[in-house]
Amino acid sequence: MNIRIDALKCINCMACEMACSFHRDDGFAFLSSSIMAYRAREKKDYFGVLLKEEENLITARPEGIDISRIGEEADPDKEADASAKPILLREGCDLCEEMEDYGPLCVVICPVDAITCEE
Ligand code: SF4
Ligand code: SF4
Prior knowledge:
Elements: E1 2-5, H1 15-25, E2 35-39, E3 47-52, E4 56-61, E5 64-69, H2 79-84, H3 105-109, E6 115-118
The structure holds iron/sulfur cluster (SF4) (2 copies).
InterPro entries: 4Fe4S_Fe-S-bd (IPR017896)
Organism: Desulfosalsimonas propionicica
Protein name: Ferredoxin
C-alpha cells in the first residue's frame, strides 16, 4: 500500500499532521508527524504536503510530485525543500500499520480526499 497526495485538492487544514502526531504520540504534537502541510510564503492559495517515508521524501506540490532520496542535498531555493528540514528528523511513515480497523489516519481524516491509498 502507498499513500498518494493530490496537492491541488489540499486546503492546508493540517488535519493530516494532527492525525499522524496522534498516531505517533497519542497526543497532538506536530513534531512527531511523518506528514506535514506547508504553505508558500509569497503565494496565496499555494499549498503542498510533505511525506517522510523510510527512505524517501515525497513533496506534493500543485505542479506535481517530487520524490527525493533522504540524504541527498536539498535545493535551498525551493520553498518545499526549505520546509522539509524539520520533517527529515522524524520517523518515517509506517502506513499506520497497527490500525487495520481504521486505515491510515491521514487518509481517513483529510476532508477533501487529497490523501488516498493505492495498493
Ligand atoms: S499513513 Fe499514518 S503514519 Fe503515514 S503519514 Fe499517514 S497518519 Fe502518518
Ligand atoms: S488533511 Fe488534507 S486538506 Fe488538510 S492539510 Fe492534509 S492533505 Fe491538505
